[in-house]
Amino acid sequence: MPLHPSHQPEARLALPAVIALAALLPLVLLAPLSTPFSGTASYLPLHMALETLAIAVTALIFGVVWSLRRERMPYNALLLACAFLGVGLLDFSHMLSYAGMPDFVTPSSPEKAIQFWLSARLLGALALLAIALPRDTRNVAWPAWAVLSTVLALVAALHALFFIYPQALPRTFVTGEGLTAFKIGFEYALIALNLIAAALLFHRMRQPRSFNASGLFAAVCTIAMSEFFFTRYGGVTDAYNLAGHVYKVLAYAFLYRAVFVEAVQRPYTLLHDSRRQLAATLDALPDLLLVMDAQGRYLEVHAARADELAMPTAQLRGRTVHETLPAKAADTVLAAIAQAHEHGSSHGKVIELALEAERKAWFELSVARKAAQPGEDEHFIIISRNITDRQETEQALRKLSLVVEQSPISLVITDLHARIEYVNAAFTRTSGYSANEAVGQNPRILQSGRTPASTYQAMWAQLTQGKPWQGEMINRNKAGQEYFESVLIYPVRNSEGQVTHYLAHKEDITEKKRTAARIQQLSRHDQLTGLPNRSLLHEHFRHATASGQTLAALWIDLDNFKDVNDSLGHSIGDMLLLEMTRRLRSSLQTQDILSRHAGDDFIALLPASSQHAAAALAEELLATLSQPVQLAGQEVSCTASIGIALYPTDAEAFEALLHQAETAMYRVKEDGRNSYCFFTAAMQERSARILALGHALKQAQQRGELHLVYQPQMSLTNDSIVGAEALLRWNSPQWGAVSPGEFIPIAESNGLIVGIGEWVLRSVLAQLRAWLDQGLPPITVAVNLSAVQFNQPDLPEFVGRLLEEAGVPPSCLELELTEAMAMKNPEAAAQQMRELNQRGIRLSIDDFGTGYSSLSYLKRFCIHKLKIDQSFVRDIGSDADDQAIATAIVQLAHSMGLSTIAEGVETAEQLACLRYRGCDEIQGYYFSRPLPPAQFEQFVRARMGAPVQA
Fold this sequence. Notes:
This protein is an alpha+beta fold. 51% of the residues lie in helices and 18% in strands. This is PAS domain S-box-containing protein/diguanylate cyclase (GGDEF) domain-containing protein.
């Protein structure tokens, strides 16, 4: 970890000095023990000089710090000064007790001098260690006099001990033998204390500066080296003793420098830096900074932009505002000064000035009263901020409000704190709040409490990042009525790219919501009977099986119902269905769920039902349904075939369970109708066929058994061919022509659909390229995507690559997705569709209206066309519900800018009904059966009136 930058300037001086002294230490150790000053009498003057110099440095350290003790000095500086005053006094006694000096109270001797020496070194080492310790281990600071008194008392006690009881102390020096083991050990203990202090100080040098740790580090290291010499000498006048004293004087010099830098030099440096920083701040201040007296006289002027001043700075000083500003502006300045005089400050007053070239500028004044010293006049600090841009922005906003006032969509402009600055007339019509009532308010005045908090959180998460947000809210107008709004909010940026306002487009979609709710109802319930449809039945199934209880599924099919429709008409058939629905419902328990699956098929789910209970209910239902019913004056009898499957015995999945029940129902049909049976293992023959088909399908593509046919699609606008749907066919040598409804689910379940789907796409694009090369006009070919294909993350890139390889325009390809596929994972589906749409590929929703439609997601899907399912087309000429659904789908699509196509159109009546309801395109047997590529080309050319090419 490197040194902290705040220590580096001082460390660059201290560390090299320590290194240099450490490098000299081996040289001294190798020097001869004798010196030119050998002998006590010769060495004594040099010793006195060195000690006097050291004592003088300690006195300077104490004097510098003690004179500044009332300033904000670090506590460790006072501790260091007082401790080293004691060290200096002990060193003075050591000097007077040195061998060869006159008696100092008691006879002078090497041992007496060493005793004073060791006590001085110990006091210094402990003081430096205390300073180096972390702050949280130091006691609370004492008053200066207490620290000084403690140190002087300790020094006095040591003198008394050394003068009165020297015999109580261990021997430190023996003449003729040299230093004792105690003396050497004590010196090593002092070295250890100093090295610990050095380590702590070096650690402090890695932290932000609180005192001159670098200088103290150099001093402690030098003291440790000095003490090392005092472990080596054999005589009090040898070279080691002399080197130890020299190193001690250098260490004290480092201490003095550290104290001088901390107490004198550093405060002046900080003061100089502070003045430079203040000057730089004033120079960089974008606003005008003025100092005036109570009469508005300019005393000081700081201006980053001279062009905002009425005259040059030198001419302003000493003048009053009435001499330099227009009367109105001068009065405003004096009023602000008066307000600051009374209340301490003034804010918000604005003056208008005409600068060069008759350019107007507005300045906002902030005035603060400056505390005056006794006998001085009161002064005021004034900050004049140029708010011209803000004023011009407000004017631009007012102009913008005039431009958008006639917009039929509510427009709201707010500032960054969501305070309303503008609303148009459409907002007033929708919300009931006038502009005067809304401006200055927060849009939360419209909150109904029904919009989820997560909606607002998501909105602000986007806006605070500078991104637009779009969503829906449930608001309440002034009259208390709730309404739905589609809201688009995006940030408004200035020329520098900074967000200054938010603009909200708000559209009342209440009526659209009601229409969507009606469509939702149509998509989840059977319109004739009001029973749940298949998707809603699936939800009931999940709820009923969530606890793991058993369940029976009854597939109820009315026998020969088609005969009733054909002989008596669909209206009588509808009446019969309603009566059968009533009878079924009355025979079921409250917890049982009844659904109309399609036509004359009903499904009943019996939660917590056993095989015996299901059989008993089936017998009851057969008896109830077979009772004659009077319809339009005629007696009609109707029986039923019921297939029963048990959960989880026969199947655990919803679709599988219904399939087993349907399989059992067909067995009843085969056995003569008007009965019931349970699904059995014998019915697995169908599963065996599926397994065999799956195995054969794996080889079908390689063997060329798969081929494509194309069913033309006609525009009802001009009766022209606009496209085709590519349909996959399988002619198996073993099974013959296998229905796509049979082999495609098998391909999806065993993983073959991806490879087959890729082959279909490549074949379609190759055929499109061939048709284009043969002069056929561009048409759009629709290809059905399976759920597995659509969920592949690289689908957009893959399709784009195929288009590029084939050289086919993206607009010639349309991908069909089922409604259930898109709604399985709406967020992922929307992203997938968006990427495909960005590549120019057209998208359509197949079988629209047969599944669970979420219009809130539908509007986010990048689709071009809705395909009306043939179940709504089949009876559209006579079924009012089918007519309503088809009409609703067409209107919904057109309102969203989408086109519609109806499939399964087989009669002129169906075609006329669809044309009347505004359907855009059709396909079906009435127009053309699916055709092989060559026949399709002939069909198109025939419709074009062009000669058919070979």
